[in-house]
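Morning run. Coffee first, then this:
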Amino acid sequence: MKLFRALALIALLLIIAACGKKGPVRPLLANLPDAVSAAELVQRGDDLLLSWRLPTRNQNGSPLEAAPVVDIYRLLYDPADYCPECKDRSTLYASINPELPEPAQFSDARYTLHDRQVTAGQGYQYRLVPKNQHNLEGRSLSVRIVVVPPHEAPSGLQGTGLDQGATLSWSPLTPTNGTDLLGYRVYRREEGVTSPATLLNHRLLTVTEYTDINLVNDTEYRYQISAVLKQGERMLESLASTPVGVTPRKDL
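And here it is:
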């Protein structure tokens, strides 16, 4: 019996000692947001466009109490000497509040952020870190890309106003630099509006004409065209064409 008690006491001491070796206290996973989803980083002309969706749950699966702020850290790197295991040298580029997302924009449940300060041949990495209402960081997610010289824009864009509509036409683009043409995108912005241009066709056009409808007569709209190309396994979007203004009128 004494031997049994002694063994039991030793076991208890070992358990207590093991408990004493725990690391620093960390917040419960329930308090930490999961990573952003559907993050994409694409080159559009000579800009980069970063987009993402907010997480809706914490890392343990419980629902978030509030939409998280997303801190975005940017790292410039040499593509020939990229070191993913090296110390993170990224710096805070933007902090996006979902209620007031500027300089990002919100549309179709996605946040988008343009980076117009980029250089061809340079690598760019963005690390997105969601933070909850207690300012605690959740799971981060990184995306990266190497910027290449942009393809020239489509040319010859012309527009004609209709009653509550507009028709557009342009010259076919001849791909260069080993690229293949996949199609065209049409962008529209109302005159005097400072918000980013609206993409009108989410499915690429394979023809060189487009009709825009349900417009307001006597209002000028400005249109631009870009081409989407494939270079190896990479998708590229060309520079945007010179804008053309079109004003729909009932008497046209």
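Helices lie at 2-19. Good start to the day.
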